[in-house]
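Review form for a predicted model. The reviewer records the input and the model, then writes brief findings.
Reviewer: anonymous (R2)
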Amino acid sequence: MELERDSLADVIVRLKRAQGQLGGVIQMIENERDCKDVITQLAAVSRALNRAGFKIIATGLEQCVAQGDDPAQAAVDRAQLEKLFLTLA
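Model under review:
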């Protein structure tokens, strides 16, 4: 199953935000910032990446349901999405 590019615009925004946050974490480490602050920001990056991944999966589920004419293909898509979901969990 391929996802439509337009439906992933929000994911791209989230990933670019996470990219900026990760750059900030690297800079914090280089500037020897307090480890609590670094961990807090690293956790924010992790959450942003998880949200992007879940958004991709949710988009896939939505398309799978919308295109659910072929039960055999829907079962394959569902299995793939479940595997991806568990990868993030």
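Findings: The mean pLDDT is 81.
Further findings: The chain is about 80% helix and 0% strand.
Recommendation: see findings above.
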